[in-house]
Amino acid sequence: MKLVGRPRPLDHSAAQDLRSREDNVKAAFMGQRHISLPTRANAPAVIWLVGLTCLPEVLLTLANAGLFDGAGLRRWAMMHGAFWNALLNGWEPVYAFQREIMFVSYAFLHGGFLHLIGNMLAVLALGGIVVARIGQQGFLLLYALSAIGGAIGFAILSNSEAPMIGASGAVFGLIGAWKFWEWQKRKHVGAPMQPLWRSLIGLVLLNVILWIALSGLLAWEAHLGGFVAGVIVAALATPTLRHRI
C-alpha cells in the first residue's frame, strides 16, 4: 500500500485561484502602511539602565531639597560629568581622562525630573524593540555608541561653551535604529516608504519646535549625532532581517 502518492498537477482553475491568492497577499503587503516591530517588554538591561540613569538626578534633587548635606553637589556633578566643548579646545580637565569619559558620562546627568522622565520614557518604549532585535548586550552597545555619537555631533556642530547633559543623544540613537529596521522591513515586504519619511520629517519639526520653545538651549547637534550613530550601528549589526548580534 502506498503511503505517499504522486502529486497531481493543478488544473487551470486551481492554478488561477492560487495566483489570485498570491496577488492578494502581495497587494496587502504593498498597501501596508503601519509596520510593527517585535518588542520585549521589561528587559532587565533596559530596566537597570533606566534605574542607573535616574539615580544621579534623584540624589541631586534630594540634595537640593536639603534632605542631606549636599550643597553644591549639582554644580560638582556638572563640572565633572557634563560634556564641555571647551575641554576639547584648551581647557584643562579636572581629573584624568575627563575629556574621554565625558563622551558617555553626560548621558547620566539631567537638568531636572521633567528632562529625565521624558528621556527615560523613550528608553523604556524603544528599548524593548532594540532588545528583541539585537539582544540585551546589543542594546547596551547601541546605547553607549549612540551616546558617544551624540557627543561627537555636539562637538563638531556646536561652538557652545555651556555644558551639555542628558540622554537624548542615546535616545535618538535608539530612534535611528528603530527607523532603520522599519525601512528594512518596508523594503523587504514592498510596503510604501511615505509613512517612514513623514515620521522623519515630523521628528525634524519636533526638534525645531523644541529648539524655539527652549530659546535655543536644545542640543539638536547631539540628537543628530546620536541618530546617525544608531542608524550606522543597526546597519552594521543587522544588514538583513535575518541578521542579529
Describe what is shown at a glance:
With 245 residues, the protein is mostly helical. Helices cover 66% and strands 0% of the residues. It has helices at 12-30, 44-64, 73-81, 98-105, 113-157, 168-189, 194-213, 220-237.
Give me the CATH superfamily: Rhomboid-like
Rounded to the nearest angstrom, the distance between the terminal CA atoms is 50 Å
Number of helices: 8
CATH class term: Mainly Alpha
- The radius of gyration over CA amounts to 24 Å
Q: State the shape.
A: globular
Number of strands: 0
Work out the helicity level.
55-70%
Low-pLDDT residue intervals, each spanning 5 or more residues:
1-7, 20-31
Structural category: mainly alpha
What percentage of amino acids are in beta strands?
Answer: under 5%
List the helices and strands and how they pair.
Elements (H helix, E strand, L loop, with lengths): L11 H19 L13 H21 L8 H9 L16 H8 L7 H45 L10 H22 L4 H20 L6 H18 L8
In words, what does this structure look like?
- The protein is an all-alpha fold and about 240 residues long.
- It has one domain: Rhomboid-like (Rhomboid-like fold), CATH 1.20.1540.
- The protein is about 65% helix and about 0% strand.
- The chain has helices at about 10-30, 45-65, 75-80, 100-105, 115-155, 170-190, 195-215, 220-235.
- It is globular and about 60 Å long.
- The protein starts with 11 loop residues before the first helix and ends in an 8-residue tail after the last helix.
